[in-house]
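Side project, low priority. Logging it here so it doesn't get lost.
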Amino acid sequence: MTDLCRRNALSLLGGGMALLAGCSESSNGNGNGTEDSSESDSIDGNLPSYASTLPTNERSEYFYGAIDVETMNTLLDDEGAEAGREPTDPLVGNPVVVALLCSFGVQQLVDSAGRNAYTENNETADGEEQFVYADGVYAFVGSYDRTGLETDLEAASYTVESEGNAYVVYTDSESDEVVGVSGGVYAYSYPNGADSEFDPVAAVERTVATAAGDREPKHEADEGFDRLLRTGENGGIACCLYTDSDEFAAETLSNDQAADDEGLQFEFGSVEGSHGVHQQLAVTGSDATANAVVTYGSEDRVDEARLKSSLGTEAETVDFVTNGSGVDIEAEYGGEFARE
């Protein structure tokens, strides 16, 4: 299945950028964002619709990836797509790895005992469901029948692990899957053999408790993270790497958040010296647009030359605009990135 998902994601680059057409019209600007009454006068822009699902944790570094489900389904359904050329431009490559990461998560749901519970109790309107990976947890963000989810999961022999007023966390003894449900989120995770300190039960509970309003979301606890989400574009495929330190630690940029066994992986080396990067990839018709915001601790830390040497290298046009301690990047792709 890894090879299939990799081939489908790579088809975005060769013969298949049009696979993302489902997110074309609404992907311009922050079309999937929502207004927030706590927005300060100094921060413009909307939060993405899934912002209230992103939990706080005890780590300095924070990563998430998101993709609208319509786009995700198109990728998974196109089993006849041929592999495209692997990207060397991180403005395209990083969102493609998000698609890989999320397609793996979707396949885990397909193979799980609880997949029918999710399918039968999904009440999300067409085109509004989001799929998010954050804090080691996969989460569908939309509208769900919580009572129906609980009934069906318990019928599938899932056991209640913990619960709050508006959420429940379950475990499956056969697969070690952990599932958390609320009216707005279906979240799941598994033990991580590479990280013995990762607790999937705690991680899933953080996610659903945050979505239910029982925990403070990351953007409310960290103004820098909130600003990055508001200034970034949030439609189509998005990813964000952030630290609450003055700049990323070297090991953060070299320690890939996810990688494909054939070499496709995140590349964040160009943002050395910064403390935040938010990327987005979307298409309009047969053309692709990639946007990025890179934020630094102060104006004198901004390294536009480093960014220009690595980002937008495969674009037809690319613009870099420095605004104080941040750099906005917009690149347009066509021709070889469009379906013939």
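Brief comment: DSSP finds ten helices and 14 strands in the chain.
Revisit when time allows.
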